[in-house]
Design brief:
With 223 residues, the protein is mostly helical. Helices cover 50% and strands 0% of the residues. InterPro entries: Ank_repeat_dom-contain_49, Ankyrin_rpt, Ankyrin_rpt-contain_sf.
């Protein structure tokens, strides 16, 4: 029921609230945005040598670095980050290079943003840290990396969910989500921190028949 509500809520968002830049698609951006989307490192370096604004925005508020990350353009992202692009610059829907890399599981780029001062407390339009969507989407190594970086494992988003709750509620109970639950529990996540309606992670796991996750939680004294 909760999953259907969330999916329906997201589907009902206006177009302006949905990601507007697909891989390689530039929305009225600069030549630097185009080069980033094309993974054209030579052109990126040439433009930067000509003193173009590295953090200029397209009409959606995205920097060239965010455009590169939308397409997982690793070489372009590296060139821009090495040149000083802002890894925390948010677009109009509150995505930043760091947040988007984390949510999408673009692990190599995520590590670059962490090394260049990613704001671990920054949140997306749902009020969630990078750890929460990474947990929901089953990005195991991304979750491990974010935990090791120091992201708050018990941060609660606007839906009233932590990373642990979202991994259970929006996950499928399979092996990646089991590993993520295990990582979160071992990192000290509060296994009894309930959602806004008072349902605990264990109750959600039992409701969905996620036996392996239920065992992980009960072993951690979940109620």
């Amino acid at each position: 029921m909760l999953r259907r509500w969330v999916l329906a809520s997201v589907a009902s968002l206006p177009l302006a609230a949905a990601p507007l830049v697909a891989a390689g698609e530039i929305m009225s951006g600069s030549p630097l945005h185009a080069a980033a989307g094309d993974n054209d490192v030579a052109t990126i370096k040439k433009l930067l040598a000509e003193d173009v604004e590295i953090d200029a925005r397209d009409r959606n508020g995205a920097t060239a670095l965010l455009v590169a990350i939308h397409g997982n353009r690793i070489e372009a992202a590296k060139a821009l980050i090495d040149a000083g692009a802002d890894v925390n610059a948010k677009d109009k829907i509150e995505d930043s290079p760091y947040l988007h890399a984390g949510a999408r599981g673009h692990l190599e780029i995520l590590k670059m943003t962490l090394a260049r001062g990613a704001d671990l407390k920054s949140t997306n339009r749902y009020g969630g840290t990078a750890l929460i969507p990474a947990s929901e989407r089953g990005h195991v190594e991304t979750v491990r990396t974010l935990i090791e970086a120091g992201v708050d494992v018990d941060h609660v988003n606007k839906l009233g969910w932590t990373a642990l709750l979202e991994a259970i509620i929006l996950g499928n109970g399979g092996e990646p989500h089991q590993r993520i639950v295990d990582l979160l529990v071992k990192a000290g996540a509060d296994v009894n921190l309930a959602d806004g309606k008072g349902a605990t992670p264990l109750q959600h796991a039992r409701m969905r028949g996620y036996r392996a996750i239920e065992k992980l939680l009960t072993a951690a004294d979940a109620r």
